[in-house]
Specification:
The chain is mostly beta strands. It is elongated and about 55 Å long. Strands 1, 2, 3, 4, 5, 6 and 7 form a seven-stranded antiparallel β-sheet that branches.
């Protein structure tokens, strides 16, 4: 048994699309927004050899799949300055099923929580 014999698998990928964000009461100090992301992306299963988190990745023949995504969210926004807002966000990511061997079809779906910083002219 050697570290070089150890094989781990991870997912790598990304997505993008159109982002729409209706804001209600945007001039008030505290208000809400309802952003929605509509798009598509790709994901691949990558083989990693050796020790450590990433080890030595093998990108030669990854198994991959494309997916569509819809991610609606709710944000509680705070106007902190004329040019700066921050928001606490909760969203749920819906995707079409991922068809990669030994990977659960809804691996990318689930709740997301975040903190957003927005700079600009509001």
């Amino acid at each position: 048994w050697h570290d070089e014999d150890l094989v781990r698998y991870s997912l790598a990928g990304g997505y993008g699309g159109i982002f729409i964000e209706p804001i209600i009461g945007g001039l008030k100090p505290v208000h809400v927004a309802f952003p929605v992301l509509l798009g598509m992306g790709g994901v691949a299963q990558v083989k990693n050899y050796g020790s450590g988190y990433w080890g030595y990745p093998d990108f030669e023949t990854p198994e991959s799949d494309l997916f569509f995504i819809v991610e609606p969210a709710v944000e509680l926004e705070f106007n902190l300055a004329r040019f700066f807002r921050t928001a606490a966000t909760i969203s749920y990511r819906f995707t079409t099923d991922i068809e990669i061997y030994d990977v659960h079809p809804d691996v990318l779906q689930g709740f997301m929580f975040g903190l957003t910083f927005k700079f600009g002219k509001f």
